[in-house]
Fold this sequence. Notes:
Radius of gyration: 17 Å
Amino acid sequence: MGYTDQRFDVNLSILFTELPLLERPAAAAAAGFTAVELWWPWIETPTPAQAELDALKKALDDAGTQLVGLNFYAGALPGPDRGALSIPGAESDRFRANIEVAADFAASVGCKALNALYGNRVDGADPQVQDALALENLVLAARAADRVGAILLVETLNKPESPLYPLVSAPSAIEVVDKVNAATGLGNAKFLLDIYHLSMNGENVAEVIEAYADKTGHVQIADNPGRGAPGTGSLPLEELLDQLKKAGYDGWVGLEYKAADAAVSFEWLPTEARAAR
């Protein structure tokens, strides 16, 4: 047990960001990883030119890296935004314009998980109206994901860093997952269990794993405090990942932590344990 029997992938939207996007897959491969994930890479547009999508696919293919997770358009992330799908008006429209683009790109690279960030509460907007819009858009996203054989992920963030984001506990995200599955009948909406965010919220991560491992479709990790690599904070990440595995989770664990030097930051994980299995 321990880190060496997990399936890790590198989040290229938070690690290797000193490099241009198209150079990051090769950097992850040079560090020994063969699986990667991304936030929506084109912050300014939900519908990039086909040439840009093709260039990213080529960069992934040339590096021999498998994209295992992709966010739908989520506004300015990194930045002030935390998703677009519950925000009435232009942002919701952008999310909808992105749904098929993201799903088609995922299909083109064999990516089987699409993450839909819920979006912040907006001044002057009725939360119930935002939640109704969110469900409508998540249903569309779940159907698109299903069309390409993928799951739809719903993520809990943390209140200290995302005070306007409404899903800041595991149960709040699970409730949305259940509503989407009830509405579509597809069963492909899953929980994105981010250990760092849960810890920042003061939740008992072991209890969350026990309660929701069967509804979990993807896991992300960073240590706390600091959101650094495993071993830089005080979270028992190795134990928690072992617990997830024992509970039946055999999916990907995304490395979504901050590091001044990504290549050096992987020293906690033996080189031979980095390639996808």
